[in-house]
Amino acid sequence: QVQLVESGGGLVQPGDSLRLSCAASGRTFSSYNMGWFRQAPGKEREFVAAISWSGGTADYADSVKGRFTISKVYAKNTLYLQMGSLKPEDTAAYYCAARSGILSRDEGSWRYWGQGTQVTVSS
After folding, report:
1. End-to-end Cα, the chain, rounded Å
2. Is 62 exposed, middle or buried (0-12, 13-18, 19+ CB in 10 A)?
3. Could you write out the DSSP letters of every residue in 14-34?
4. How far apart are the C-alpha atoms of 84 and 67, rounded to whole Å?
5. Residue 108 phi, psi (nearest 5)
6. Phi, psi of 109, deg, nearest 5
7. How far is the C-alpha of 80 from the C-alpha of 45, rounded, in Å?
8. Pairing between strand 10-12 and 68-73?
9. What are the b/e assignments for 86-105, b being 16+ CB within 10 Å?
């Protein structure tokens, strides 16, 4: 079992930056690939970014590439999503997820999920 708790969401203005955190507990954090997904009102949950268990490989959705950075700190069992140049279309609930095996953009293949943290980008 892996327990995931997100934090760091809030209300920001367009162009601002924000860092989300995901604290993991339970089975060895370093054994799992970690990812971020988001869900806007009335829309399906979508892939944002993922990082391999080793930290050596990262994948980003085209919509956030160059603006968002995913990272993990093993000593803290924490996953981060550094978000920059935020846009109103980034408004969503952001979810942290974990899975073994390979990286995947398919949300259905991720086993463990956090409860989400809300990010609102508005002037």
Report:
1. 40
2. exposed
3. TT--EEEEEEEEES-GGGSEE
4. 5
5. -65, -15
6. -95, -5
7. 19
8. unpaired
9. beeebbbbbbbbbbeeebbb
Residue type, 99: R
| DSSP code at position 105 | S
- Ramachandran quadrant class, 89 (left: phi over 0; alpha: psi -120 to 50; beta: rest): alpha
pLDDT, block means (10 residues), the chain with 123 residues: 94 98 82 95 96 93 98 92 98 97 94 97 97
Phi/psi of residue 44, nearest 5 degrees: -75, 155
Residue-level pLDDT at 46: 98
